[in-house]
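Thanks for the sequence, V.! I ran Metallo-beta-lactamase domain-containing protein right away. Repeating your input here for the record:
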Amino acid sequence: MPGYLPFAGALQLPGFTCDNCGFWQRHFEVPPYCPMCLDARHVVPQKGWRFLTERQAQAEFPCHWQELEPGVWRFWNDPVSGIGPSAYLVQTDAGNMGFEGCPVFSEAALEQIARLGGMHVLSASHPHSYGALVQLQDRFDPELCLPAADFTWSAALQVSWPYDDFLEPLPGLELHRTAGHFDGHAVLFDRGRKICFCGDAFKFELDPADFRRALTISAHKAFVRGVPLTPNELRRYRDVFERLDFTQTWTPFEPAANCGRPEVLALLDSLLEGRSHAAPVPLENLKI
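Predicted structure:
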């Protein structure tokens, strides 16, 4: 039965966020280390671990929000340490869905989400973007949908709706598992708005004069370390993105309004033509 918790003791522990990467853990004391920083896709802190409580993170990292499209809100922290992803709230007639988590939500941001109708469904593309999902789950008790392939990273959360490769948690909002960057990496496709929230499947460099206009696009297994995807991973990406009719591609960091399915497929085709790489490719150089 949805919402059934045979053992909820772990979710009553306090939360701590890593100052190096932003990954949250629930622990009975300050954690001894951060498993996300020890993962091969990231790097360990050069001066040792530093963990913040929710209140400390709120005090250090101001939270901001903006409605980028009608019914689509972005929440982010600035200034911030660590990875610093954005969180998105998508409003629908059937309820609101949250995708990704910013490093920490202020009390004012949580109140804004409540004014917008709360949170009925929650998900994320992969553990780098979990951010403060713990706050959203504690405050709004949404259905949490995560791919089973990344379940090992969700110890701080209560997954109520695991899925394999596809899930439509609300009408018109589709979760598609791409794998690649993480085994459970997934994207959110908003059919009505034709927006693909692509997680870390792609990275963009934006025009300094227009933060929604992408100049370059790249794909990678590990962005910080510059590791490219394998041919099979690229083929799986292509199989997923070819099925989605999107005109905008939003990452946890930048909403690229000028990049859609044609540009994404052109990049993947170019990477499949020879040796894969993680270098940025100017959009104007893509063969569309």
